[in-house]
Write a structure and sequence with these properties.
- By secondary structure, the chain is α+β, with helices and mostly antiparallel strands.
- The chain has 14 helices and 14 strands.
- The strands form three sheets. It has an eight-stranded mixed sheet with strand order 7-8-9-10-6-2-1-11, with helices on both faces.
- A hairpin with a 3-residue loop joins strand 7 (about 125-130) and strand 8 (about 135).
- Helix 1 packs across helix 9 (about 230-245).
Length: about 375
């Protein structure tokens, strides 16, 4: 950690500009060195994971009717999350792959720093479950996850600092039946915990930011203020317009998949909940051959195109040849370039295959 880390205090951000900053920060990492960013959500919105099927997690018509913005976060996995204005704070640590080649090691290296930062704001009882989830008495405060973002490795986090409007959330979300089967607390209202509740006082963005900076500096990280330049701000605004495109949100959409399936095919959709939720869509012809496929789910896996490549590999496979379908998935998902920050808590080839099996069962019905 000898390099100088550029610290960007993002403050209150809308979801489009927040995500549009990432490519600008990646460019800085490649050209100059590592970056640490912090921010707090400045707009109520729903944040769809890169691999998520937007139609299985959200009622987009209800979102539009109630004025809730929806964004798909570029490249980053995980599930769909609801962020109310001022209720969640975030950070990102970005490094070149040459400087942090082992994503697992990078993630584990920041875990004690992050726990120290939480302790400084009265959250010393919070612990990791697996490598990612931050929990208190079985309830989820947030997460710290590792992600392969093509040319960089990222360790990023969010924590809930005060209660969001869950009445609003429950009007727009679609929760799969098996999504919370392995959670200690079933009810969403009890499952989410906030820093305010744990600490017994208000926890502000400034509290979080300052505690994180202090924890980083205490382990010898050289962190220097580096606000966005005028040129960078201009590029952020340009990128935000692209991310706001509704087609971007519907990058993975089961409704669109079914609508665009080739004429005469039978379509099936299925979920499988292993350690993470996997979702598959298939369109099969009269001979039982997969002519189109869709893969989705709540997962942190890289590179960002891997699940799309799995779907492509399934095309041409026979619904009757399960061994061949497994090989098609494994050829992509078990390749050397694919990895997850926590394999023990991640998705497997057999999880993806189980989702495909369920989709095929519906299609062949």
């Amino acid at each position: 950690m000898a390099d100088v880390w550029r610290f960007v205090d993002g403050g209150a951000v809308d979801p489009f500009e927040s995500n549009a900053r990432m490519p600008i920060m990646i460019r800085h990492v490649l050209e100059h060195g590592p970056v640490l960013m912090t921010s707090v959500w400045g707009q109520t919105h729903l944040n769809v994971g890169w691999f998520d099927d937007v139609d299985s997690t959200l009622d987009l018509d209800a979102c539009e009717r109630l004025g809730v913005e929806v964004i798909r976060r570029p490249m980053y996995g995980g599930g769909t999350a609801f962020y109310d204005v001022g209720c969640a704070v975030m950070c990102s640590f970005l490094q070149k792959k040459e400087d942090a080649p082992d994503l697992d090691a990078m993630l584990s290296g920041f875990q004690p720093i992050y726990l120290d930062a939480l302790k400084r704001i009265g959250l010393g009882e919070v612990q990791f479950e697996g490598s990612s989830d931050l929990r208190w008495n079985g309830r989820k405060l947030g997460a710290l996850t590792g992600q392969d973002i093509v040319v960089c490795h990222s360790v990023g986090s969010f924590i809930n600092i005060k209660p969001p409007n869950l009445d609003l959330y429950l009007q727009v979300v679609r929760v799969p039946d098996d999504k919370f089967k392995d959670k200690v607390v079933k009810d969403m209202r009890e499952y989410v915990v906030t820093a305010q509740e744990i600490a017994g006082r208000d926890v502000t963005y400034e509290d979080y930011r300052d505690a994180l900076l202090a924890a980083c500096r205490d382990v010898g990280m050289d962190v220097a203020d580096g606000p966005l330049t005028e040129e960078e701000l201009s590029r952020v605004k340009h990128g935000a317009r692209k991310i706001a495109d509704p087609a971007y949100v519907r990058r993975i959409s089961s409704e669109r998949f079914a609508r665009e399936a080739p004429a005469g095919t039978r379509v099936g959709l299925g979920n499988h909940k292993g350690r993470k939720l996997c979702r598959a869509g298939v369109a099969i012809d009269s001979n039982g051959v997969i002519v189109a496929a869709m893969m989705a789910g709540d997962m942190h896996v890289g590179p960002p195109d891997v699940i799309d490549r799995v779907a492509t590999a399934l095309v041409g496979g026979s619904a009757a040849d399960r061994d061949d379908l497994r090989k098609r998935i494994a050829t992509v998902f078990e390749a050397d370039d694919v990895h997850q920050a926590d394999a023990l808590m991640g998705v497997t080839t057999d999880d993806l295959l189980a989702a495909v099996d369920k989709a095929l069962s519906v299609a062949t019905g």
